[in-house]
Design goal:
The complex is a heterodimer of chains A (313) and B (508). The longest helix of chain A is centred in the last third of the chain and has 38 residues, at 222-259. Chain A is globular. The relative contact order of chain A is 0.14. Chain A has 313 residues and is mostly helical. In chain A, α11 (265-274) crosses α12. Chain A starts with a helix and ends with a helix. Chain A is 80% helix and 0% strand. Chain A has 13 helices and no strands. With 508 residues, chain B is an alpha+beta fold. Chain B has three domains: 1-66 and 189-266 and 480-508, D-Maltodextrin-Binding Protein, domain 2 (3-Layer(aba) Sandwich); 70-187, Dipeptide-binding Protein, domain 1 (Alpha-Beta Complex); 269-478, Roll (Dipeptide-binding Protein, domain 3), CATH 3.10.105. Chain B has a four-stranded mixed β-sheet. A four-stranded antiparallel β-sheet of chain B has the order 4-5-7-6. A four-stranded antiparallel β-sheet of chain B has the order 14-18-13-17. In chain B, β6 (140-145) and β7 form a beta hairpin. In chain B, α14 packs antiparallel against α15 (453-469). The radius of gyration of chain B is 26 Å and the shape is globular. The termini of chain B are far apart. The chains are: A mainly alpha (313), B alpha+beta (508).
C-alpha cells in the first residue's frame, strides 16, 4: 500500500510539471501584446519595449519558466502584470470562495446521489423511471441556465437570496449561507443528476451478484445487506464518479461565479486568461492542478482502503 | 422495503442548513448587498482597476481612482479645465506652459500637505511610467514656492489642459517607496477603507470630510463592486444590491420595466475607419470615389431603427455634438444611394469590387453590425473577410496598421482636439495607416500656434469638413449609451469627456 501511495505522489508531481510547463508554453511569445495591453492604446513603442523588459517577457521560455517554478517552490507566485497584486494574496482570498462552493456541493451530491441512486435501484418501478428522467434532464440543462432561473425566481422575484456577491463567514454566517445557497443549488442539480444515475447502475450491478442472493438467503436483513455489503461494493464506481464530479464542479464554478458575481478562482482565471496575465493564470492553474491531484489521490486512497484487491495492484 | 432513514435525515439536514439562510439576518459590509441608502453609494463596474499605480488608471469607470485622488485641474465633458487641487491656472501665449496655484490647506490621506513638490513629483513620475509617458516627455517643472507650479512642454501643446487633467496627484514619498500598488495615498473626496476592501471584488471608501469640494460628494460611503456579467449587474440593481451600473441596449427594456432610472450618454460613433487614403495596402481606397461610394451604401436611418432598436441617431461627422470641431447643421454629403455608389465604383474602375479584411473583437457589437455591413459592402462587390482578434495581442494587432479598414464603435470625445490627435493626425494611434496629410498637419500647426479660442475652433471645424469631404471615415450611427441607476440617485449631468459613464461627482 505504501508503494502505491509513493507511486501516486510521483505521478502527481510529474503531471504538475507537465501541465504547468504546457500552460506556460501556450502563453509564451506575447510579450509586446501583453505590454501594450498593460499600458493601453496610447503607449509608444519605446514604452511597450520598456514594459516588456520590466515584466521579464524578453527572456527565453525556459528562463521564464524556471523563474516562475523556482519562485513557486518557495511560495512566491509573482505579481499580476495588470494590477500588481501578489498572486498568492489574490488566491488566498479567492480559493476559499471556490472551495466553499465545490465542497458544499460535493457533500450534498454524495448524500443526495447515494440516497436517490439506492432508492431507485432498490425500489425500481416508477421511482426508478422518474429518477432516470430527472437525471437526464438535470444532466442536459447547463448549470448557468439553472443559475439564471434561480436568480430570477429566488432573488429578483421572491427576494429570498441575494442575486450577487459573497459574504465571508467571518463577517456573517447567515450572510455566507445566503450568498452560497443559489450558486450551490445551481451546481448541485447537474452533479446529483449525473452521480445518482451512476450510483443507481452500480447498486443494481451489485444487487445482481451471487453473494447478495446468498446473504438474503441466509435471512440477513435487507438494510444490513444494502448498507454493509451492497453500498461498500458499489463504492468503487461511485468514487470514480465523484472524482470526476469534483473536477466538473471546478469547471462549472467558472460560469457560476460569473452569474453570481462571486469573487472566486473561476472568475480570476477567466479574467486573467482573457488578458494573458501570465502570473495569475499560472497561479490559478497551479491551484487547480493541486486540487485535481489531491482529489484523485484521495479517491485512489479510499478505493484502496475499501477494496483489498486494489491494494495488490 | 424500509426507507433509508439515515441518508434521508442527512439530506434534509443539509438542505435545512442551506435554507436556514433565508431567515438569517441581513448581511452587511464587504461583498454584501448594501443597496441604496442615504449615506452609501454602491456602484458596479464591469472590469477591475489595474491596481493603484496613479499612472495607470482607467478613465472609463474609474470611480476608485476618482475617489482617492484629485488632479491638478479636472476636465469637464468638453475637456475644459475646472478647479481641483489648483484654484487658479493660466496657459502661456505660446501654449507651452501651464502655471497653476495650489489652494492652501489641502492634505493627503497620510496627513502630509498637498503642495507643489507633490504635484511636481507626480508629473515627473508620469514621464517614465504608464502608457501615457509620451504625453509628458521633455517637460520642465518649476516650483517657486509650495503653492505655485509651472509645467512647460518642449513644444506648443494644444492639449495642455487634457494633459494636466490626467495625473492623479499623490505624495513623493509614496512614488519613491516602490510600494505604489499597495495602498493609494491621495487628497480625493474619499479614502480607501482597506479593511472592507477585497481587491478584484469590492472596494470600499469612506468620505474625506476635509476635501475642498466635499459638498459635491453627498455620500458618506462609497462601495464599488466588480460585476463582470451584465445579467448579474442588472439583477443586483433590480434587487437593490447596487445603485448603478452601465447597461447595453439589450437590457434597456428590462431595466426600464423594473422602475429604475436610465441616463443616456453619447460617447461613441459607429464608423468604418478608411485609413489607407493613399491606397498603399488597398489600392482602391486611394480613390476618393471609392471612399465616398462606401459612405453612400449604408442606410443610417434603418441602422438606428433595426440594429440599435431606435437608441441612437444617424451620424454624419465623427465629432461629438457640442464639441469645438462639430459643425452644426452639416447635411449628409453622402446620403444613402446604392445606385450612385455603384456608379462611383465603376467610375473609379472597381465595378467588380475588391476584398477587405475587417478585424473583429469581442465587445464591439460585431454580431449585430457585421452582417449588415458585409451585406451592404457586398452590394458594391466589396467582399468582407472577417479576421477575429483575441487575447493579449488583439489590441496590438488592431493598431499595427495590418488592417487599414476597421469597423468600430469609436469614442467621440468632448474635447475634439483629442479626437483629432488620436484619430485624424498621422501620429494618432487610431489613424491606423499613419499616412501624412499636409492639410491636416497645416491646420494642426495653426491650432498649436494660437491661444485664441475662436481661431482654434475654426481650425478644428476646417479639419472636420476636410475629412468629411475626403471620406476618411464612414460614420454611421451615434448610438446611445446607458447608465442605469436607482431612483434614489440623481444624475443630472455626465461630466465625462469620453461620454461613456458618469463621473463620481455626477452622483447626487
Amino acid at each position: 500500500m505504501a508503494l502505491s501511495v509513493v507511486k501516486n505522489l510521483a505521478r502527481s508531481l510529474a503531471v504538475l510539471l507537465v501541465v504547468t510547463f504546457a500552460t506556460f508554453t501556450l502563453m509564451f511569445g506575447n510579450g509586446p501584446g501583453i505590454a501594450q495591453a498593460v499600458l493601453g492604446l496610447n503607449a509608444r513603442p519605446e514604452d511597450v519595449q520598456r514594459e516588456v523588459v520590466a515584466l521579464g517577457l524578453d527572456q527565453p521560455l525556459l528562463v521564464q519558466y524556471w523563474h516562475w517554478l523556482s519562485g513557486a517552490v518557495t511560495g512566491n507566485l509573482g505579481e499580476s502584470f495588470y494590477t500588481g497584486q501578489s498572486v498568492t494574496e489574490a488566491l488566498s482570498s479567492r480559493v476559499p470562495v471556490t472551495l466553499a462552493l465545490v465542497v458544499i456541493t460535493l457533500v450534498l451530491t454524495v448524500v443526495l446521489s447515494v440516497l436517490l441512486g439506492v432508492t431507485a435501484a432498490v425500489k425500481g418501478g416508477w421511482v426508478d423511471r422518474l429518477l432516470q428522467f430527472v437525471s437526464v434532464l438535470g444532466t442536459a440543462v447547463p448549470a448557468f441556465i439553472v443559475a439564471i432561473v434561480l436568480v430570477f425566481t429566488f432573488a429578483v422575484a421572491w427576494r429570498m437570496f441575494p442575486a450577487t456577491g459573497y459574504v465571508t463567514p467571518e463577517l456573517s454566517i447567515s450572510g455566507w449561507v445566503k450568498s452560497v445557497t443559489l450558486p450551490v443549488v445551481a451546481l448541485l442539480v447537474g452533479a446529483v443528476a449525473s452521480a445518482a444515475a451512476q450510483f443507481r447502475t452500480a447498486v443494481l450491478d451489485t444487487l445482481g451478484r451471487d453473494y447478495v442472493r446468498t446473504l438474503r438467503a441466509r435471512g440477513i436483513s435487507e438494510r444490513h445487506v444494502i448498507f454493509r455489503h451492497v453500498l461498500r461494493n458499489s463504492a468503487g464506481p461511485g468514487l470514480t464518479v465523484l472524482s470526476l464530479t469534483t473536477l466538473g464542479l471546478l469547471g462549472g464554478a467558472v460560469f457560476i461565479e460569473q452569474v453570481f458575481a462571486l469573487p472566486g478562482m473561476g472568475q480570476l482565471a477567466n479574467q486573467s486568461a482573457q488578458v494573458n496575465d501570465v502570473p495569475m493564470v499560472m497561479g490559478t492553474v497551479l491551484v487547480t492542478i493541486v486540487i485535481v491531484l489531491v482529489v484523485n489521490f484521495l479517491g485512489d486512497l479510499t478505493t484502496i482502503l475499501l477494496n483489498p484487491k486494489a491494494r495488490t495492484r | 422495503m424500509r426507507r433509508n432513514k439515515p441518508a434521508l435525515i442527512a439530506s434534509i439536514s443539509a438542505l435545512a442548513l442551506l435554507l436556514a439562510g433565508c431567515t438569517g439576518q441581513s448581511a452587511t459590509g464587504a461583498g454584501s448587498g448594501g443597496g441604496a441608502t442615504k449615506d452609501t453609494l454602491t456602484l458596479a463596474m464591469n472590469a477591475d482597476i489595474q491596481g493603484w499605480d496613479p499612472s495607470n488608471q482607467p478613465g472609463y469607470q474609474g470611480w476608485p481612482g476618482e475617489a482617492v485622488w484629485d488632479q491638478l485641474v479636472k476636465c469637464n465633458e468638453f475637456g475644459k479645465a475646472e478647479p481641483d487641487i489648483a484654484d487658479k491656472w493660466s496657459i502661456s501665449q505660446d501654449s507651452k506652459t501651464l502655471t497653476a496655484h495650489i489652494r492652501e490647506g489641502q492634505k493627503f490621506s497620510d496627513g502630509t500637505p498637498v503642495d507643489s513638490a507633490a504635484v511636481a513629483a507626480t508629473f515627473e513620475y508620469m514621464t517614465s511610467h504608464g502608457g501615457s509617458s509620451g504625453d509628458y516627455k521633455g517637460i520642465k517643472i518649476e516650483t517657486p514656492d509650495a503653492q505655485d507650479i509651472a509645467i512647460t512642454w518642449p513644444a506648443p501643446e494644444p492639449l495642455i489642459i487634457a494633459k494636466a487633467c490626467a495625473p492623479k496627484i499623490t505624495t513623493k514619498a509614496l512614488l519613491d517607496s516602490g510600494k505604489i500598488n499597495d495602498t493609494p495615498i491621495g487628497s480625493g473626496p474619499y479614502v480607501l477603507d482597506a479593511g472592507a476592501t477585497t481587491r478584484g471584488s469590492v472596494y470600499t471608501f469612506t468620505k474625506n470630510p476635509n476635501h475642498w469640494n466635499a459638498a459635491s460628494y453627498p455620500y458618506q460611503k462609497l462601495v464599488v463592486k466588480v460585476i463582470e456579467s451584465e445579467t448579474a449587474a442588472v439583477s443586483a440593481l433590480k434587487t437593490g444590491q447596487i445603485d448603478g451600473t452601465l447597461i447595453s441596449a439589450q437590457s434597456y427594456n428590462e431595466v426600464q420595466a423594473s422602475g429604475k432610472q436610465i441616463t443616456t450618454m453619447h460617447g461613441v460613433t459607429t464608423r468604418l475607419l478608411l485609413t489607407d487614403h493613399l491606397g498603399k495596402k488597398i489600392p482602391a481606397l486611394g480613390s476618393l470615389d471609392i471612399r465616398r461610394a462606401i459612405n453612400m451604401v449604408f442606410d443610417k436611418q434603418t441602422m438606428v431603427k433595426s440594429l440599435y432598436q431606435g437608441h441612437g441617431e444617424p451620424a454624419v461627422q465623427i465629432f461629438r455634438k457640442g464639441s469645438d470641431a462639430y459643425v452644426d447643421g452639416m447635411s449628409d454629403p453622402y446620403p444613402y444611394n446604392v445606385d450612385a455608389a455603384k456608379a462611383l465604383m465603376a467610375k473609379a474602375g472597381y465595378a467588380n469590387g475588391f476584398t477587405v479584411e475587417l478585424p473583429t473583437m469581442a465587445g464591439q457589437n460585431f454580431e449585430t453590425l457585421m452582417p449588415y455591413v458585409s451585406q451592404q459592402l457586398g452590394l458594391l462587390n466589396i467582399k468582407v473577410k472577417q479576421v477575429p482578434l483575441s487575447g493579449a495581442n488583439a489590441i496590438g494587432d488592431l493598431l499595427s496598421g495590418t488592417y487599414p479598414v476597421v469597423l468600430w464603435q469609436l469614442g467621440n470625445l468632448g474635447e475634439s482636439l483629442k479626437d483629432i490627435d488620436v484619430a485624424v493626425r498621422p501620429t494618432g494611434y487610431w489613424n491606423l495607416s499613419h499616412q501624412p496629410d499636409a492639410t491636416v498637419e497645416g491646420l494642426w500647426k495653426k491650432i498649436a500656434g494660437t491661444s485664441d479660442v475662436a481661431e482654434r475652433k475654426a481650425a478644428q471645424q476646417e479639419i472636420n469638413k476636410y475629412i468629411v469631404d475626403q471620406a476618411w471615415f464612414a460614420p454611421m450611427v451615434d448610438p446611445d449609451g446607458f447608465y442605469a441607476h436607482s431612483a434614489d440617485v440623481k444624475i443630472d449631468h455626465v461630466s465625462d469627456f469620453e461620454g461613456l459613464a458618469p463621473k463620481l461627482r455626477d452622483f447626487k
